[in-house]
Amino acid sequence: MKSAKNQKVRDVAHPGQRRRIEIKGPEDLRKMRVAGKIVADVLKVLAANVRPGVTTLELDKIAAREIEKSGARPAFLGYCGYPAVICASINDEIVHGIPEAGRILREGDIVSIDVGAIYEGYYGDSAVTVPVGKISNEAQKLLFVTRESLEKAIDAVVPGATVGDISAAVESFVVANGMSVVKEFVGHGIGRKLHEEPPVPNFGQQGTGAKLEYGMTIAIEPMVCAGSAETTIRENGWTAVARDGSWSAHFEHTIAVTENGCEVLTS
Q1: E strand or H helix at 23
Q2: What does 32-86 look like in DSSP terms, one character per residue?
Q3: Closest residue by Cα to residue 85 from 110, 112, 114, 55
Q4: Sequence ranges of the domains in the chain
Q5: Which of 228, 226, 219, 172 has the alpha carbon at shortest distance from 200?
Q6: Which residues of 228-237 are buried (b: 16+ CB within 10 A; e: fewer)?
Q7: Exposed e or buried b for every residue in 200-210, given b needs 16+ CB within 10 A?
Q8: Helix/strand/coil for 150
Q9: pLDDT band at 19, cuts 50/70/90?
Q10: The whole model's pTM is what?
């Protein structure tokens, strides 16, 4: 792998193998901040448009318009053949819900919206789960636990910590609240590619995995199920759902490791 200008490449040890992780320089981080802000702004607009009667395809069109206005490009459209600008996953859909005209949001639903954008060759990636009107107490707890598990994970990001510290922070909080973390889908490094090293699972042990270093950039994204986290894929080949039909929530931020902690690039 060739390193870009302002980037260094580190070999970071993992058990039984070595993976190459790109370390970003000041100019890389500047561009990633812009990409992150674009994603955050688009998510705010989308969340404001979530209400009963809106279709996920309408949300997709709004996202396409907002990303284009920003001077960026959609990160997901065409990625490995993905057919839309955003992922919009409703209730028991965990991730990769494809926007459709027939997918109508209804009172009491929850919808997870995942947005990615490319600015001058650098990626931003973030997700939120939004209530549709008034939701049940159980759904409110699911959103709270998932969102809070992301905050716990972010608190664990400091130079010298490990990916396992992030993973354990998510899993321990989720399990303590009687819910489960999805294991088939994980967070990831991010930068000049949407998915870079290292993988960032939402389960694991403290002190394991890649060490965090100043200049690393990662996407942390807890996916939490109210019931079992066993998954299945719908016939469209993309959308992951909870096998037992339990509802799921998804929150994500793109993070840069700083000298003393971290910076949330998609806040």
Answers
A1: strand 17-24
A2: HHHHHHHHHHHHHHHHHT--TT-BHHHHHHHHHHHHHHHT-EESSTTGGG--SSE
A3: 114
A4: 19-264
A5: 219
A6: ebebeeeeee
A7: bbbbbeeeebb
A8: helix
A9: low
A10: 0.92
Contact present, 202 and 182 (Cβ < 8 Å): yes
5 vs 217: which has the higher pLDDT = 217
- Cβ contact 222:247 at 8 Å: no
What backbone torsions phi and psi does residue 194 show, to the nearest 5 degrees?
Answer: -65, -40
Our CA angle for 133, 138, 140, nearest 5°, is 50
User: Of 3.90.230.10, 1.20.1250.20, 2.40.50.100, 3.10.490.10, which CATH number belongs to 19-264?
Assistant: 3.90.230.10
| φ, ψ for residue 62, nearest 5 deg | -65, -45
